[in-house]
User: Fold this.
Amino acid sequence: MRILAYCDKRYELVTREAVVGWEADCLTSPPVFAGTFSPDWFQGYEFIYLDIHGQPSSVYLYSGPNQEWAALSLKTVEAARIDGAVIFATTCFLPETKFLEAFLKAGARAVVAGEGENYAGRKNPAGAQSLAGQFVRQLELGLSPETALEQAKTKLRKPLLSKLIKQQAVNDALAFKLWK
Assistant:
């Protein structure tokens, strides 16, 4: 499966180790910013993982400790051709922005995201990242996005895994939904 990850630079290690693996194409912000991210960069991937920050109703997704850098613009997504990729976003508030609709209109097969604030870790995976890692593994087995999400949530509920992650982060991840 061809995978693209785009994350806040501070999340690169956990993104690679816990979610997408070292074979994935991984872009980070910085050095990539909204003004340099090309819509063409989304093409040719079957799975796209986003771990950048969102704010309700914003036309940008952000990076940086204080969300001070625009990492991706709505206009970029609206100009993209995503061609059937499945998108998983740990991005806070993604469903409360126009990004969800833009990804679907650009051709995403499905978008998985959580409403409101979502919990991710910089050094160790938190709930949303653990769910994303399980989700991509299920997709790689050939499961549909809907079944992959159900299976990933089932694995996240297992006592051993859920003990390694704060319960609030587990509950947050279990509330993630799939949009088509």
